[in-house]
């Protein structure tokens, strides 16, 4: 059986992949995909803790409810974020982050 | 059995995650992300969280990724033109990721509290969906309704954002 550390390392590697995408890629829509990967890495560690920290012989369902809420917040976030990307593209005709530096100091 | 499933799904999930990082075409990135999410749902099932696994496939691999593909095709994004890589930014990004990973593995591998094997479930078997529904509607009624308000305001926000002229 895999240990809790196995799942946490897998979750950490997934988070690092998402962080790498956010740091290294230059297309705003792929950066957004990296954000989704990071959210899912957090979900994986929550579900792992729920399975390994039993409450009276059963899984801790509070953690799974938290995952449920994270998924619904992420769905709302994706809808708003993609609408922002579409209106950005309409204004600037680009999704490359190095062309979008109006707020740069 | 569970161990084999864990290694299978974890390896595939990380491989598809890395391919999001290296592939140039945004549509290939989105398809790799779908596969990564499906493997993550498999990991949830190995953790006896079948309901969360099903939700993962329906919401993430289904709805959210269809939205991503829809936007990619609406904006007609082609392969990124290979520009000269900003050397300092790339090095900094790799440094941040590597230091995060080294600290995390250090903490997880040295702490004996994380090396526990899977505890066996006790008592009569309960339905996953039933327990989640009971918890959601007994202990988390207020957050559930707040999520409803959040989704409504997100819908209104999207409609305002996608009008042709912002007023």
Explain what this protein looks like in three dimensions.
The complex is a heterodimer of chains A (105) and B (167). Chain A has helices spanning 4-24, 28-52, 61-92. Chain A is mostly helical and 105 residues long. In chain A, α1 runs antiparallel to α2. The longest helix of chain A is centred in the last third of the chain and has 32 residues, at 61-92. The mean pLDDT of chain A is 90. Chain B has 2 domains: 1-80, NADH-ubiquinone/plastoquinone oxidoreductase chain 6, subunit NuoJ (Four Helix Bundle (Hemerythrin (Met), subunit A), Up-down Bundle); 127-167. Chain B is built from 6 helices and no strands. In chain B, α1 runs antiparallel to α2 and α2 packs antiparallel against α3 (50-75). The chains are: A mainly alpha (105), B mainly alpha (167). The interface between A and B is large, with 72 and 82 residues.
Brief summary:
Chain A has helices at residues 4-24, 28-52, 61-92. With 105 residues, chain A is mostly helical.
What is the number of domains of chain A?
1
User: Which whole number gives the mean pLDDT of chain A?
Assistant: 90
Classify the beta-strand content of chain A into a percent band: under 5%
CATH topology of chain A: Helix Hairpins
Name of the level-1 CATH class of chain A: Mainly Alpha
Q: For the CA atoms, what is the radius of gyration of chain B?
A: 21 Å
Q: How far apart lie the N and C ends of chain A?
A: 52 Å
């Amino acid at each position: 059986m895999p240990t809790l550390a196995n799942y946490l390392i897998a979750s950490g590697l997934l988070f690092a992949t998402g962080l790498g995408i956010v740091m290294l890629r230059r297309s705003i829509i792929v950066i957004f995909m990296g954000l989704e990967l990071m959210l899912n890495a957090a979900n994986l560690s929550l579900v792992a803790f729920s399975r390994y920290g039993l409450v009276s012989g059963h899984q801790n369902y509070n953690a799974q409810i938290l995952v449920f809420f994270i998924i619904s917040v992420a769905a709302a976030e994706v809808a708003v974020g993609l609408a922002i990307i579409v209106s950005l593209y309409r204004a600037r005709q680009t999704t490359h982050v190095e062309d979008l530096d109006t707020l740069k100091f | 059995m569970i161990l084999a499933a864990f290694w299978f799904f974890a390896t595939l999930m990380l491989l598809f995650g890395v391919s999001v990082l290296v592939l140039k075409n945004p549509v290939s990135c989105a398809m790799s992300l779908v596969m990564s999410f499906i493997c993550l749902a498999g990991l949830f099932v190995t953790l006896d969280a079948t309901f969360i696994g099903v939700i993962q496939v329906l919401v993430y691999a289904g709805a959210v990724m269809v939205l991503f593909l829809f936007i990619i095709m609406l904006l007609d994004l082609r392969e990124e033109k290979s520009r000269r890589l900003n050397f300092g930014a790339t090095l900094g990004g790799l440094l941040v990721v590597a230091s995060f990973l080294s600290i995390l593995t250090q903490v997880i591998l040295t702490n004996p509290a994380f090396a526990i094997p899977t505890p066996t479930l006790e008592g009569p078997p309960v339905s996953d969906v039933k327990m989640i529904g009971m918890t959601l509607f007994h202990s988390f009624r207020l957050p559930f309704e707040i999520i409803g308000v959040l989704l409504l305001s997100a819908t209104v926000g999207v409609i305002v954002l996608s009008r042709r002229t912002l007023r």
